[in-house]
Amino acid sequence: MFRYTKRTLIIEILTILATLAMLLPFWILLVGAFKTGPEILSSSAVAPPASPTADNFVALLSPESMQSGNVFAGLASSITITAGSILCLVVLGALAAYALTRSTSRWGNRAFYVFLVAIILPTQLGTLPLYIGARNLGLVGSPWGMVVIYTGMLLPLSVFLYSNFFRRLPREYEEAAIIDGANRFQLFFRVVFPLMAPATGTVSILAGLIVWNDFFTALIFLNGTPYQTLPVVMYSFVGSLVSQWNLIFAVVIISMIPILVFYSFAQKKFIQGFAGGLKG
Description:
globular, single chain, 2 domains, 77% helix, mainly alpha
């Protein structure tokens, strides 16, 4: 029987305090986005705005605003690159993981360990040769080139996550489909892949967060082009606006909305993926 003790009370208090501490930066960001320029400099960072205003968002998103072009262009580039990368990582990662886990030869396990090594190694080590190769292939300065680069960088993570699910998937599903006359293409896309929905949700959210929030790679490969992603656009605002933190906070809020909407739709599969479930 559960008993509410002093220890339980202390744990609850500590949990509430830890939650408030983690939410404090978001609160500062939220209230700052609705403050005016003079107010954000004179008032406390945690104090709510005296007269909340949406002028910061209007200044960033209004067609007449000078900043709106950069924000909309960065938003479009980020959405294009993130969506394209997720699509490639899901398709290629699932196919590669299925081939590795169902392989009966030694090369399957060896190739899987190569993918594990690629996860451990920091990607910054290969920035220079990657840039030279991408430039020679004409991928620098292009959003589709960024899709190829991110796919190559995150494919080991995608293969690793899918492989763990494929190993737990009973082979009876595949054997039954083969008996019914399904070919390899139908077996994978009609039987196996739909069962991987939790893994797909996990890969999509993790890869989407990495690509969407990435600053270093986008700065290196898209700097000076009209296809700069939203993190790079935000960085340019920090340099040009200097003390206008109300606009900077508003840009951060705008950048959070698409990824939060995406997570709200995929969170069920994401949670199932961490729980290790196969059926949604």
